[in-house]
Design brief:
Layout: H1 3-29, H2 34-46, E1 49-50, H3 51-58, H4 62-74, E2 78-80, E3 91-94, H5 96-120, H6 122-149
Antiparallel strand pairs: 1-3, 2-3
Helix pairs in contact: 3-4
Length: 150
C-alpha cells in the first residue's frame, strides 16, 4: 500500500472512531449507553424498532441488542407493539415512562445534530453520507471477495 493511501485510511479510521467517541461521551452524560442510543435512533426514525432493524442498520451483534431491549423492557421503558410487528419480529415502542426517561436526551440529540448540520450545511452532509455509504458498500464487497478467495 502506498503512503498516501495509508494516510487517507488512517485518517478515515481515526475520524470514524472520534465520531463514535463523541456520541459515546454525549450519551454517557445522559446515562444512556451507546447501544441504547442506537435503539433510540431507530425509534426516532420509524416510531418503533425491531431487534433486527437495529442489528442490520448498525452491524451490532444480535445478542447485544437483545440484552439492551430486554433491559429496557424490564425497566418499563420499552414495550411490544403487536400491531407494528414485522413478520415474526417483535416491534418495540417507548412506554410513557420511557418517553419521559429519554426526553432530555432525545431533545438534546435533535438540537445538537440539527445545529451541526446547519453549521456544516445540508449539501456537505448529504455528500458525506453518500460517500461514506458508497465506501462502506465497496469495502463490504472487497472483504467478501477476499474471504471467498481464501
Amino acid at each position: 500500500m502506498n503512503k498516501q493511501t495509508e494516510r487517507i485510511l488512517n485518517h478515515l479510521d481515526c475520524s470514524v472512531h472520534q465520531y463514535r467517541g463523541v456520541y459515546c461521551y454525549w450519551a454517557k452524560k445522559y446515562g444512556v449507553s451507546y447501544n441504547e442510543m442506537l435503539v433510540l435512533y431507530v425509534l426516532r426514525e420509524y416510531g418503533f424498532c425491531t431487534q433486527k432493524q437495529v442489528c442490520d442498520r448498525y452491524l451490532v451483534p444480535r445478542q447485544t441488542i437483545n440484552n439492551v431491549i430486554a433491559r429496557l423492557r424490564n425497566d418499563g421503558l420499552l414495550e411490544v407493539s403487536p400491531s407494528l410487528n414485522i413478520g415474526r419480529e417483535k416491534a418495540f415502542v417507548l412506554t410513557k415512562k420511557g418517553s419521559a426517561h429519554f426526553s432530555d436526551f432525545i431533545t438534546s440529540m435533535n438540537t445538537v445534530e440539527e445545529t451541526a448540520v446547519e453549521l456544516l450545511g445540508e449539501d456537505k452532509m448529504l455528500l458525506m453520507t453518500q460517500l461514506i455509504g458508497e465506501y462502506n458498500s465497496i469495502l463490504k464487497k472487497s472483504v467478501q471477495q477476499y474471504i471467498n478467495k481464501k
